[in-house]
Design brief:
With 229 residues, the protein is an alpha+beta fold. 32% of the residues lie in helices and 26% in strands.
Length: 229
Amino acid sequence: MVATCETLWHRTPEYFDLPWRGLWSVEGGGPTVGHGIHQFDLLLAVLGPWSRLTAFAARQLLPTDTEDVSMAVVEFDSGALATVVNSIVSPRESSRLRFDFEFATVEVEHLYGYVEADWRFTSVPGREELLEQWQADATAGAASSHRDQIAAILSALAAGDEPAVSAVDARRTLEFAAAVYASAFQGRAVAAGEIIDPDPFWRSMDGNAVPWHPIKNVTDPVKNEESIR
């Protein structure tokens, strides 16, 4: 029914000394598409298709052309409501997901990768058997990582199978990020499926609608390419 998705990380101004960091044209966006996308990708995997959202984005502190904070309120096809916060100006870093279902709350808090022990399950009074089932299904394993996700894709391709996460799933997550920017920069709610060609947010996350002035630029493409390498 209710969910909270928080990516509260911290980056210093020095992080953006590399000339390619913080640029829409190179990184594609700020913490929405570059940091918090991992958390709300998992949110979408659990709650399913989203239907509409309203968002805000701001450049609060850091010397970057992209946002350093964004927030969204999201409605899902199921009727569930969620808040999504993406930040790189938060001194106490945390990555957190919380889901409130009818009979239980399920949550995980970690930083850059979670293990089984980072998950917490709380059942409503009278439904303690759910906690017992949760504990019975628990399995030990390594911390979540990009490596495991890439390995799963490569294994599926090697076996001639369709990867468990399809291009359609990936597009849904990217569409969510684009909708956050579109809503924040245009000051309106955005519905799923609304951003299609020739909408400017179809081709770039900034949609040529960033409300603040740029403070960085890349004047030497060769230097920029070397920095990326």
